[in-house]
Structure formats: C-alpha cells, structure tokens
Specification:
The complex is a heterodimer of chains A (about 475) and B (about 120). Helix content of chain A is about 60%, strand content about 5%. With about 475 residues, chain A is α/β, with parallel strands linked by helices. With about 120 residues, chain B is an all-alpha fold. Chain B has two domains: about 45 residues, no CATH class; about 60 residues. The chains are: A alpha/beta (about 475), B mainly alpha (about 120).
Chain lengths: ~475, ~120
C-alpha cells in the first residue's frame, strides 16, 4: 500500500467519524460519544496529514510541534471560561478558524506566485483561493467584533452603529473585492497580482468589521451562526485549493450546521437573512420606544413567594438577563424549593433567548436542572393557559405580545412564549428601561402582571429563601 | 467548453504540488463530495436536539479546525520561502487552539446535561 493510499484511507475513516460525531449529537444521552468520535477523527486527520507530508519529504517538524504546543496552551484556558462567557469564546474561536483559513490561502498564493506556477494558479484554484481568503479574513474580523460586543469591550460600540449609505458602502466594498478576485483569476501572474491579492485581504478584513457594526445584541445568535457557517465554508474552499476531500467534507459539515442554526434563529425572530445583516434592527426600534410611559405594578418578593407556593404549575421564562446576572444557580434553588412543595416547574426556552443558540439550556444545565424540564417554545405554549404563574427572569422581547398583535412593531410576527396567557405573571427586571430592542412590552402593564425590580440573582435568591422559610 | 486545457493544466500541476498535495486536482469530483457532504450535514444537524445547540456549535467549531490539515501541508513544505512557512505555522497555532478548546468545552458542557433523577451521578 502506498503512503498516499494510507493517507486517503485515514481521511476516509476520519470523515466517517466526523459524520457519526454529529449524528450522536442528536440526543443528550449519546452526545458525549460524539465528542470522542470527533477527537478521534481529528487525531486521524492530523496523523494522516503528517504521514502524507513525511512520505513526500516534509520539513520543519520541530516548528510544527511547537505550534501545536502553543495552540494547546492557549486553547486549554479558553475551554475553562465560565459558561456565561461561552458566546464570546465561540465567536473568538470562529475568528481563529477564519484566520487559519485566510493565512493558508495567502501562503499558497505567495508560494505559487513565487514559483511562477501558472499550472497551479489555474482559474478553478484561484477562484477557490479568493473565496478562501475572502471568507477567512471576513470571518476573522467579523468574529472578533462579535466577540468584543459580547464581552462588552469598551471601545467596541454595543448599540448598532449606522451611518448614511451604509449598505451601499458595504456592498461597494464587497463588489470591489470580487472585482479584484476576477482580475486575479484572469491574470494570476501579473506583476500587480500580489498587490491585488493584498487589497482583497484588506477589503475582506474591513468588510468583516463593517458587517458586524450595525448588528445589535438581540441578533447575535443569528450572526454567530452565520459566522460559524463562513468558517466552515472557508475550510471547504481550502479543500478545493489543496485538493483535499477531508477538508471539503469536514468544512461542509460545519457549514451546514451554521446554515441550519442561522435558519432556525431567523425563523424564531420572523426575519430574513438579509434583514438581519442589512436591517439595522436597533434604529427602527428606538423610534417605537417614544410612547408615553405607562405605570408598572411593582410587588414584593414576599407576596410573589406566597402566590408561587400555592401554584400547581410555574413556568419560568429565562432570558439574557439571567445570564448577565449569573442567576442560574439561584434559579436552581428556587426550582428545588418549589419542587419540594409539590409545584410542577417547567422552563420555557425561546430559541433566541440569550446570545447564542441554546444559550439558556447550557446555563440551566450548569445549575444541574434536569433537561426534561427545559421545554421548547412550541411545546410549552399549549400549557401556558394552565400555568398559575409565569416567572420571567430577564427575558423581554421573547414574551412581548406585541409580536402577535401590533403590526407596526419591529418584532411583529416573531413567535413568542405566551406568558400573557398564564393566570399570573411575575417579571424580574433590572430597571424600568425597555429591553435590548428598545421596544415597550405591554405584557408588563397587564392587570395580572406584577413587577419585581432588582438584580435577577438577588431577587430569585430572595424568592427561594422566602419559600424555604415558610416551610 | 474549455475544460480540456484546464484539465490538462490540472493534471500537470499534480507533479509540482509536491509535499502533501494529495494527487491531481479533480475539481468536479471535489464538487460532488462537497454537495454530498453538505446534504449529509444538513440531515444530521436537523436531528440535533435544540437543547444541545450551544455544544453543537462548539463541536462544529472544533471540526472546522480541520483547517489544521492545510496548515500542516503549508508549514511542512520543502523549499518554501520563510514567510510561507511562518504563515503555515501561525495557522497551525490558530487551528490547534480551536481543536483543544472546542472539544474540551463541548465535553464540559455535555457533562452537565442530566436527566431528572439520572441513573449516573
């Protein structure tokens, strides 16, 4: 068996393992097997590549080992971040993934250009190279921006930034990058080709920044998913450049995952891709927030605890506010106290609650709340009229009835959790300001709604203490 | 169609591709693989429980670090200028970061998902 056959066989097994890895993710029971098979696949991929490189006369092995060690040294602490920081971490690693693809593309172009290798720079390969670099570098800066926004880094604006002709400028830059790409395809060995290539890189980097500037926090789940897809597609493009089918398959698996997640997120907000990317959500919303202030009905934690103690079904609706306040462990205490009193407790999880897909589930799982009690929006809505209490913890837009009724509202048509159908609603809110989208929530002014103002962690902790004390 | 000269160029290229370039470029074959892999991916991912979307994303994040393969090929290339090797090494560093942190954090999160009165504690 030739070394090349061995390499391809290893790649084949790795591909199969990657597919199984995703298959096993379909069920929490088997999901951890998915991780092991992913690790095995990656190990085979690296082993196969090293074998292939060695058989054709590679070099720099010590340097490669050093790069591996350095990567592991940075990667290990990145895996230990608190779970509330998972969205940032994910965005950051999308950035690393994009950068890796972009750098490999750049290296390949420089290599072939230096060799005057017209055969290698055939049109198909140059197209793949340009796409790899474009996607790679825009994912790099775009994800860095997203990570910065999520981490609330000071010099990155949190609110969506808009300016006149924004979309025209963005599309213009993108068109320019594409035009340069076409020029490169036509004349890859021209004297100006390296300049055109460098310009493409710079434009992609700029494009990534400009794409994320107008995007607000509520759209982050969609944007992270889209960046996930781009990172995968840049690996696919790299596969075309290097004629490596493993890169193509693994990249395609990643790309399709990002695509499906983006579609789910868009549907959960009743918005289209283009609307998320070019819509500048925050702006329209602010205009809607200028209505006259209505009166909230505040209530005390004591009476809230009493009502909950007598309930038979309490539905808790968590949102980003729970993540910000790191309130998940207090929520667990409340859950325990209610359970002790024979109250059924369910969690209603909206697909876009939080800052990335599935964010709430992970936080509640961290607090050791059994996943049987985490219920998806579509399933819980049928039970909402039977709920005695809906307790809203730091969620806002996902329970705003305006999404059902008010045609003029920016969130009109978005599927929501029907918290307003519960017999009593308690909402924990940090301040009296409207939520992230800046939209007034009429749920808070209903007769059956009572507000508990304060930090989610403190309020939920106090609720749990009250319930414990009454025993 | 102008496939003929292009294909010829592709075949010629294979020789010079050298270290780690795996065989002659078969562009159409690669497109087939891409399409099939995308469909398999779409079908597999559609079945993933919504509960696990965050771990799913960190897992696919680690999988997309497959870019390490390309990075190794570039970094190990003989007779490549120093800057090309350097770019390859940085790319290995970036991908390894994702491999290590992606798989570790996915496992860390998955460990937390427990059933009510789970059998294992």
């Amino acid at each position: 068996m030739s070394a090349e056959t061995l390499v391809q066989l290893l790649y084949l097994v790795a591909t199969g393992l990657f597919i199984m890895s995703l298959r096993w993710m379909s069920d929490p029971e088997t999901a951890r097997k998915g991780v092991f098979s992913g690790v095995a696949a990656m190990a085979l991929a690296v082993a196969g590549t090293l074998a292939g490189v060695a058989s054709t006369g590679g070099t720099h092995y010590w340097w490669i080992l050093a790069a591996f060690i350095a990567g592991a040294a940075v990667g290990y602490p990145l895996a230990q971040v608190p779970l509330t920081a998972v969205p940032q971490r994910t965005a950051l690693s999308h950035a690393f993934g994009g950068l890796a693809a972009g750098l490999v593309g750049t290296a390949k172009f420089m290599l072939y250009f230096g060799q005057d290798n017209l055969a290698a720079l055939n049109p198909a390969t140059v197209i793949a190279l340009v796409l790899e670099v474009l996607l790679g570098f825009l994912t790099f800066t775009g994800s860095l921006m997203a990570a910065g926004k999520l981490q609330e880094v000071k010099w990155i604006p949190q609110r969506p930034v808009t300016y006149p002709l924004q979309n025209v400028i963005n599309l213009g830059l993108f068109g320019l990058a594409l035009a340069l790409g076409v020029a490169l395809v036509l004349a890859p060995l021209a004297a100006w080709a390296p300049l055109a290539f460098a310009a493409t890189v710079v434009l992609s980097l700029a494009f990534g920044v400009l794409l994320i500037l107008p995007i607000g926090g509520a759209d982050m789940p969609t944007v992270i998913s889209i960046l996930n897809a781009y990172a995968g597609l840049s690996a696919v493009a790299m596969g075309f450049v290097l004629n490596n089918k493993l890169l193509i398959t693994a990249g395609a698996l990643d790309g399709s995952s990002g695509l499906i997640l983006s579609i789910i997120m868009c549907k959960a907000m009743n918005r289209s891709f283009t609307n998320v990317l070019f819509g500048a959500f925050g702006q329209t919303a602010q205009a809607a927030a200028t209505g006259e202030a209505k009166a909230y009905k505040p209530d005390t934690v004591e009476s809230a605890a009493q009502i909950m103690a007598q309930a038979s079904l309490v539905v808790i609706v968590p949102g980003y506010g729970m993540a910000v306040a790191q309130a998940q462990h207090r929520v667990r205490e409340l859950y325990d106290q209610l359970k002790k009193r024979g109250v059924t407790v369910k969690f209603a999880i909206h697909p876009v609650a939080g800052r990335m897909p599935g964010h709430m589930n992970v936080l509640l799982a961290e607090a050791e709340i059994p996943y049987d009690d985490l219920v998806e929006m579509d399933e819980i809505n049928g039970d909402m009229p039977q709920a005695d209490v809906a307790l809203i913890i730091g969620a806002n837009d996902v329970v705003n009835p305006a999404a059902r009724s008010e045609k003029g509202s920016p969130i009109y048509g978005m599927p929501i959790i029907d918290a307003d159908k519960a017999r009593t609603v308690y909402a924990i809110k940090r301040s009296k300001n409207p939520g992230f989208a800046g939209i007034e929530n009429e749920l808070y002014y209903l007769d059956k709604t009572f507000m508990l103002f304060g930090d989610a962690k403190a309020v939920v902790g106090e609720l749990a203490r009250q319930l414990a004390g009454e025993n | 169609m102008s496939y003929a000269p292009m294909t010829l160029a592709l075949i010629q290229q294979s020789g010079e591709h050298g270290a780690g370039g795996h065989g002659p470029v078969d562009f159409m074959g690669a497109l087939f693989v891409f399409m099939l892999a995308t469909f398999i991916g779409l079908m597999a991912i559609q079945r993933v429980s919504r509960l696990l979307h965050t771990p799913l994303m960190s897992l696919t994040n680690a999988i997309s670090a497959i870019a390490v393969v390309g990075a190794i090929i570039v970094a190990a290339g003989k007779d490549a200028p120093v800057y090309v090797t350097a770019l390859g090494l940085v790319a290995i560093f970036c991908s390894t970061t994702n491999i290590v942190s992606g798989f570790l954090i996915t496992d860390r999160m998955l460990k937390m998902f427990k059933k009510r009165e789970g059998a294992s504690k």
